[in-house]
Amino acid sequence: MSLAYGVFARRGEAPRVGARRGDRVLDLAALAAAGRLGALPERVFARADLNAFMAAGRKAWRECGERLADIDEGGIALAEVELLLPIAVADYVDFFSSLEHARNAGRMFRPDAEPLPPNWRHLPIGYHGRAGTVVVSGTPVTRPSGQAKEPDAAAPVFGPSRRLDFELELGFVIGAPSRLGEPVPAERATEHVFGVVLVNDWSARDIQAWESRPLGPFLGKSFATSVGAWVVPLDALEPYKVPAPPQEPEPLPYLREEPWAYDVELEIELQGQVVSRTSARNLYWSVAQQIAHLTINGASLRTGDLLASGTVSGPEKRSRGSLLELSWNGSDPLELADGSTRTFLLDGDEVVLRGATADGAVALGEVRGRVLPA
Length: 374
Description:
By secondary structure, the protein is of the alpha+beta class. It contains eight helices and 26 strands. Strand 10 (about 145-150) and strand 11 (about 155-160) form a beta hairpin.
């Protein structure tokens, strides 16, 4: 199984960087201190985030991975450590890159019009999120409060969100930064990506609907974004790149590349029951195109940037990546095995997202979160 990197702490000890191998964790600070990780010094790993390691660049990442492959001692049992947020998040950008998700949203909210916004097939739509509320898997999520307005109501009201939702996404973590004012071309974009992590972009749909006229998501998204504790090196997914259907119309030159995606299987568990299975194959825009678009105006990448794919949804009902879609905005409640139904999340609900390649060689782990009352 491929290695994954994260940050851990044992009782009474300072946090440090580790590499997961099965159910064990290798202490990279200790290995570096013993001179077993090449030129990388102990200080790169004796810290509470991966950022110094990620900033060292692709050559250092690969050398570290090669040296770890030759280390066969067991490490520390996962059960003995606390897992922490793996990166110090610099900027957070969330995209809207799944064709089926975009179509579903359009069909629900614009039933008498073309489902896709007119710009959707021309550029990777996205919004800048809040880096300070990115939390690690296992962190409870408090139901947010805010303004909402029903379509037939005369005025908005304030209170806890009644349409709390999850979103199944892939996150790409930037390691090597770029220079301000210099766009990153699509063909070199993945050179800046350290690795991949699972993301749950929690969403308060009622707050989002009222505030998103005209500027888009704000408080309906910024209260929490959960990420996995382990970042899988992007190199590990290289063998799982697959061709994707043609992009029509053909994108402008700065976005143009042969369409591709990662063949990674994804699933959503709600209250102990798997309610959806989908694939990262269902992403229309690649991370390379996302980076090319993000930087075309001169904006720079920073070590620790988190770029989320947007909800990953497939064409079948049980391959949709959000409760909004699975319950069709509440009009078709999702039935669980215990006979209960969900239109949106209830207090106490636990959501778990998982991802892995079909052969199990690359595992993204899980993102777990339980809803607490407002």
